[in-house]
Design a protein that fits this description.
The complex is a heterotrimer of chains A (about 325), B (about 425) and C (about 220). Helices cover about 30% and strands about 15% of the residues of chain A. Chain A has about 325 residues and is α+β, with helices and mostly antiparallel strands. Chain B has about 425 residues and is mostly helical. Chain B is globular, with a radius of gyration of 22 Å. With about 220 residues, chain C is an alpha+beta fold. A 3-stranded mixed β-sheet of chain C has the order 1-7-6, with no helix packed on it. In chain C, strands 2-3 form a two-stranded antiparallel ribbon. Chain C has a two-stranded antiparallel sheet with strand order 4-5. The chains are: A alpha+beta (about 325), B mainly alpha (about 425), C alpha+beta (about 220). At the A-B interface, helix 1, helix 2, helix 6, helix 7 and strand 7 of A face helix 2, helix 3, helix 7, helix 9 and helix 15 of B. Chain A: InterPro entries: 4Fe4S_Fe-S-bd (IPR017896), 4Fe4S_Fe_S_CS (IPR017900), ET_IronSulfur_Cluster-Binding (IPR050954), TAT_signal (IPR006311). Chain A: Keywords: 4Fe-4S, Iron, Iron-sulfur, Metal-binding.
């Protein structure tokens, strides 16, 4: 930013035809400098070439899930299966299960019964092909003090025989809100609410800005801080595009009520593993479903109701 | 730009396209030469910035390759140093335009001389903002998903899309205004007000909008009580309008010392009065916010208590936030000194203190406590990793590089030492 | 310097800008609001819409005890397996001691049995006429396979919840048109002699991210 105070046009700028020797040396030096600069820049950016191997042109050009027709989606899922084989050595089948008409999923959890054993969190980890090192799970179980519903008095990191007599336990996962703040904030529509109420993420469209993670009031969203690492034999081969397929690095993911299971009529993994039967799952549109009976017969509440997110995940005591 | 030289200029006149083609080519050529030629100090400065920028580029490349695991961010504190810097720089960009308001609305002649310095700062800041956003993305390769038509743009629902629009619009506005004024000056003509005055007025409103929209990014999140305050946007503006002028005063002093450009005393005087007011408004708002938090107590106050006093031995933010508070208070006192604009040293110290204080307040002091405690009230701390520091330093260096080049080109043209017709 | 006229111009400029901004914001929030209202209505209708699930194609199967309970004799056979004996092996000839009031008084095969089930005595559930069956308080004899009927006589509300599907673990399908379901029986989870669910060690400690753990709150 220094402009030397010599007379003439532009001081020492070369147009004034100053000393020709200085002019030459300067040009040479500039040339060397520029070459060095470019070389240094190439060297600095070299890690990107290694990263390029883990992504592909097809992936780069892939369109949004909702814009793919049947054949394109089939091709994408085939490619993802091949990539899983190449990267992890596992044979998996990736499908695309659509939402079923007349179905809207609801989940209820009986806080009187939950003992806080965290088996649901573990089952989630295994079912959904989470990165092993991160110990990731869509469920976080809070140990709460009796006499308070305030999560400030909760603690997820307990390690003693449960249930403790002065505590109760509250597993929290995605509430599949009716009015999900995480969907509103996404700048690229990479996450949306499906007709059966499940909020999903297109892992191949997400840009990884993590705005949804900041917007979610329930700590339900997770980011893939690195490329997930899972031993071949531990990979759950029953996968779907919108739920438990192995996620790419650098994108958001979340609980989908195991839609690869539940859209085929099955129960979610966290429910099946629950040793105390604290969980009730079903179709909110079916008046005879268990979940509707919970709503009718129990005094249920939702978390952070004051935020207006209107969860489809209900808690009750009995 | 002195009044003397303005009189020498020809009035705006129509030209053929071929005239513009040649003279604009010449303009670019000379701009390039101006940007790459200078004293040894200039070269040392540029090489230094380039080196830091390269270190940052390398750190970023490693982060992209290995994943964001190289940062210290977690699912609990999912934004960190990058977004902190981004927020501050949006403010700096908005603050740069504070010079424009008196210059064009009050017809303050002294400010006319220096307006371009502020607008160039806005350009450099926005460039840095965009770089910080890209550094924060988990998948920078998918940036095109945001482009209208080819990608999907969740407008108007997502505040982030608003931010993308206003930031890029602001960049274009300032590029146009600066480019037009410089080019006209270069070909020795008076700029036609029709072609820039409307844009100047738009850019004033736009400057307010960029920071308001950025505040809305945070205060619209109901799940984050620390951010969910209506006072956030006004506080953003108040801090922006003291950090921006503070930086510009420092730059003006450097320009005064290093170049032949004349900086009118009136310009600094106006900027100081702006700072005096905005910093007091900011302090008032800070105090009323803290009163509400601490006197009410409860869940809302948890984050503020953590930030100022720590929580169960976790106190990563305490030194930061107290530094900020002390710096801002000292600077306020210094600025209250009568005729402070005549006391260069006091003014410099005050400006540096304000700049650092606001950088912390609008950066680490704003973003991090939004995540601590988490929405499930878990306590996970955040201390930036080496990679994050390197990338941030690199982006700052790149931004200063851009700003230096812009000033290097603009000042000789504006002081009429480089003219296309000579 | 700023004279009155300029100040007036400033005020007008700012006013125009602000009005423009307010209109934009209002317009946007209206659009967003509109969208949310629509969703809300769908939801409200949705919850009232009756969904006819069609005939259930599969059954809900409730686990049952496989047969009469056996007691460990404490002896091993030639293969090293525990020798289990049926109740009637002893009780055919041996009457029970009606004076026993707590589990610590139990002897022989019953020694060590933990009993913690309210004020009940052995014969509240067991049938003194035939130890391989149970007996309800109204005297009706119940096979061990139908133990839930016995539990239900006292635990009415719990039984009602169970019948509604609100209590008890299960695996299988929520949609009985596409698959069956298996439900737990009371004694799958509850020891009839000490029905409170026992304490267990939690599995799978939570992490924050690879290489990071949560700092525990110590004061709770």
């Amino acid at each position: 930013m220094s402009e030397t105070n010599q007379g003439g046009c532009g001081g020492d700028c070369s147009c004034s035809g100053g000393g020709s020797g200085g002019f030459d040396r300067r040009t040479v030096l500039k040339g060397v400098g520029a070459t060095l600069g470019v070389a240094a820049f190439a060297k600095a950016m070299a890690p990107l070439t290694e990263w390029k191997d883990s992504t592909s042109v097809d992936e780069f050009l892939q369109m949004h899930y909702r814009e793919l027709d049947k054949d394109q989606l089939a091709a994408v899922m085939k490619r993802l299966e091949d990539e899983t084989k190449a990267d992890y050595g596992a044979d998996v089948s990736i499908s695309d299960v659509k939402a079923q008409k007349g179905v809207k999923f609801g989940y209820a959890l009986n806080l009187s019964v939950c003992v806080g054993c965290r088996r649901c969190a573990k089952a989630c980890h295994e079912e959904n092909n989470h990165d092993r090192a991160s110990g990731n799970s869509y469920i976080r179980v809070l140990e709460m003090t009796k006499g308070s519903m305030d999560m400030e008095h909760g603690n997820a990191d307990y390690n003693h025989a449960v249930p403790k007599s002065d505590k109760f336990y509250m597993p929290v996962q995605c509430q599949q809100c009716e009015n999900p703040p995480c969907v509103d904030v996404c700048p690229v529509e990479a996450t949306w609410k499906e007709d059966d109420g499940i909020v999903v993420v297109d892992y191949n469209w997400c840009i990884g800005c993590r705005y949804c993670e900041a917007a979610c009031p329930y700590h339900a969203r997770r980011f893939n801080w690195n490329k997930p690492e899972i031993p071949k034999e531990e990979i759950n081969p029953d996968q779907s595009y919108l739920s438990n397929r192995i996620r790419p690095q650098g994108v958001m993911e979340k609980c989908t009520f195991c839609l690869h299971r539940t859209r085929k009529g099955k129960m979610p993994a966290c429910l099946e593993v629950c040793p105390t039967g604290a969980r009730v799952f079903g179709n909110l549109l079916d008046p005879n479903s268990e979940i509707r009976k919970v709503l009718a017969q129990k005094r249920v509440f939702v978390l952070k109701e004051e935020l207006g997110t209107r969860p489809n995940f209900f808690y009750f005591f009995d | 730009m002195s009044n003397h030289s303005e009189d020498n200029m020809k009035p705006d006149q129509p030209h053929s396209a071929s005239f513009h083609a040649t003279s604009y080519g010449k303009f670019l050529r000379i701009a390039f030469r101006l940007a790459t030629t200078g004293s040894w100090t200039f070269y040392v400065w540029m090489i230094f910035l380039t080196c830091v920028a390269l270190v940052g580029a390398n750190a970023w490349a490693i982060q992209v390759r290995d994943g964001m695991i190289r940062t210290a961010m977690t699912d609990h504190v999912s934004w960190g140093l990058y977004i902190a810097n981004f927020t501050f720089l949006v403010g700096l960009a908005a603050g740069g335009v504070m010079m424009v308001i008196p210059a064009y609305i009050y017809k303050d002649e002294d400010m006319h001389d220096t307006v371009i310095i502020g607008e160039l700062l806005a350009i450099a800041s926005i460039v840095m903002c965009l770089m910080f956003v890209i550094a924060d993305l988990g998948r920078p390769d998918r940036f095109w998903h945001m482009l209208p038509l080819v990608g999907k743009f969740n407008w108007p629902i997502s505040m982030l899309t608003w931010d993308v629009i206003v930031l890029n619009g602001y960049l274009l506005l300032n590029l146009h205004i600066c480019g037009y004024l410089l080019y006209k000056r270069f070909i020795g003509e008076k700029p036609n007000p029709k072609w820039y005055v409307p844009f100047v007025f738009i850019s004033i409103a736009w400057a307010i909008s960029i920071h308001t929209v950025t505040a809305f990014l945070y205060c619209g999140l109901g799940g984050r009580p620390f951010w969910n305050s209506a006072l956030l946007a006004p506080r953003f503006l108040a801090t922006a309008f003291c950090a921006g002028p503070a930086f510009i005063i420092l730059v003006l002093q450097l320009i005064q010392r290093l170049t032949s450009m004349h900086v009118g005393k009136g310009a600094v005087k106006t900027l100081v009065s702006i700072m005096r007011i905005t910093i007091l408004i900011n302090l008032l708002m800070l105090v009323s916010e803290l009163f509400t938090e601490f006197y009410t107590g409860g869940a809302h106050a948890e984050a503020a208590i953590y930030m100022y006093f720590g929580h169960n031995g976790m106190n990563a933010l305490v030194p930061w936030v107290w530094t900020s508070a002390i710096f801002v208070v000292i600077a306020t006192v210094l600025l209250l000194r009568p005729n402070v604009y005549q006391h260069t040293k006091t003014l410099t110290v005050a400006c540096i203190l304000i700049f650092i204080g606001v950088w912390i307040e609008k950066g680490m002091g704003l973003i991090i406590p939004g995540f601590i405690p988490s929405t499930l009230h878990e306590w996970v701390e955040y201390v930036p990793s080496a990679i994050e520091w390197k990338v941030s330093a690199g982006i700052w260096a790149a931004g200063l590089l851009v700003y230096t080049v812009l000033l290097k080109v603009a000042i000789p043209i504006f002081t009429d030492r480089v003219r296309g017709d000579s | 310097m700023a004279n009155k006229q300029n100040a007036g111009r400033l005020v007008i400029a700012i006013a125009i800008l602000m009005i423009g901004g307010i209109i934009t914001v209002l317009f946007t929030s209206y659009i967003i609001d509109e969208q949310e209202r629509e969703e809300y209505e769908i939801y409200e209708d949705g919850i009232q819409t009756t969904w006819t699930p069609g005939e259930a194609q599969f059954e809900v199967e409730i686990n049952r005890p496989t047969g009469v309970p056996m007691v460990d004799s404490g002896k091993k056979n030639y293969d090293g397996e525990a020798v289990m004996v049926r109740c009637n092996t002893c009780h055919d000839s041996k009457e029970m001691n009606l004076l026993v009031t707590s589990s610590s008084q139990l002897k022989d095969f019953h020694q060590g049995l933990v009993f913690n089930h309210g004020e009940l005595s052995c014969l509240s559930c067991h049938n003194a006429d035939n130890y391989e069956t149970l007996r309800r308080s109204d005297g009706q004899v119940i096979a061990f396979q139908n133990v839930m009927e016995l539990c239900g006589q006292c635990h009415g509300p719990r039984m009602r919840d169970y019948k509604s599907g609100l209590h008890g673990g299960m695996v299988g399908h929520w949609d009985l048109q596409r698959g069956g379901r298996k439900r737990n029986n009371c004694i799958d989870c509850h020891d009839p002699h000490a029905p409170a669910y026992p304490q267990v060690m939690p599995v799978f400690p939570p992490k924050v991210r690879a290489g990071k753990t949560v700092k525990t709150e110590t004061n709770h």
